[in-house]
């Protein structure tokens, strides 16, 4: 039987563990908090992140990462992106020799501007052939109700994507494969930044024209950055690109959209952070995305104003003026 360890008992980690368990994989969740782990292991519920959701009885949980990873074919990493390096360094001695490391994280590392798969290869000391990425329009609030959804599993090794696709493919959860790890990761990370911008616009009371413009021009920013770093442009028209972007920018279930909406309504950063119970990855990753763009000399004006609003004290109104007062350009440029 295929075995998996899912490291992280947040909403997405728990949900993906549920998917693997339902698909017949022997799955163990790891978490730091003993009370959450015990509730999952004995009560088959994660009361902290998924209250009221019945988890498969076959799903186990532990506070011991070594126990979780023992004999695992897949080690699934489901922690906030900015904590990956520190956590993975401690887990490295317990990773099975041939296990595939699977990233559920949608972020770019601060300071290094590295994608999560790059951090995994560096810290775990594994070749890229042993790393996979899962990304797509996968809002947990719908998945826990087992509403139909699709995702992308990406790796440079077709055998790895095939095995992971089989492990997480269910009647209500459809997995597609892709070999473009770079594009899949960039789509997942940058869409969070664009969702913040769309949320700010919605909070300001601006209409559908503005939201559609931000999403479309946001996709153009993702494509420009992708072209610069070697991604396949077709990836951004797929589930990990446009699909994830649309879901994250439009759904009230989206953390990043909701975070931006609160800012647009006039809440301060401190108030917005206090009102946000879970990590909105775009809040920190917007800086690293902008750093990556500047490294490759890629123009990303929406990302720039998001950084301004979230980190530099710019008001939403000032951000709108900056975007609308830019010099006229062709619709397609910089690609």
UniProtKB/TrEMBL annotation:
Residues 3-159 form the Glycerol-3-phosphate dehydrogenase NAD-dependent N-terminal domain. Residues 180-319 form the Glycerol-3-phosphate dehydrogenase NAD-dependent C-terminal domain. Sn-glycerol 3-phosphate binds at residues 106, 136, 191, 244, 254-256. It is an enzyme of class 1 (oxidoreductase). It catalyses: sn-glycerol 3-phosphate + NADP(+) = dihydroxyacetone phosphate + NADPH + H(+); sn-glycerol 3-phosphate + NAD(+) = dihydroxyacetone phosphate + NADH + H(+). Gene3D superfamilies: N-(1-d-carboxylethyl)-l-norvaline Dehydrogenase, domain 2 (1.10.1040.10), NAD(P)-binding Rossmann-like Domain (3.40.50.720). One of its GO terms (molecular function) is glycerol-3-phosphate dehydrogenase [NAD(P)+] activity. It holds the Pfam family NAD_Gly3P_dh_N. NADPH binds at residues 11-12, 32-33, 49, 106, 255, 281. PROSITE patterns: NAD_G3PDH (PS00957). Signal peptide: none annotated. It is found in: Cytoplasm. Keywords: Cytoplasm, Lipid biosynthesis, Lipid metabolism, NAD, NADP, Nucleotide-binding, Oxidoreductase, Phospholipid biosynthesis, Phospholipid metabolism. Pathway: Membrane lipid metabolism; glycerophospholipid metabolism. Belongs to the NAD-dependent glycerol-3-phosphate dehydrogenase family. HAMAP family: NAD_Glyc3P_dehydrog (MF_00394). Catalyzes the reduction of the glycolytic intermediate dihydroxyacetone phosphate (DHAP) to sn-glycerol 3-phosphate (G3P), the key precursor for phospholipid synthesis. This is Glycerol-3-phosphate dehydrogenase [NAD(P)+]. The gene is gpsA.
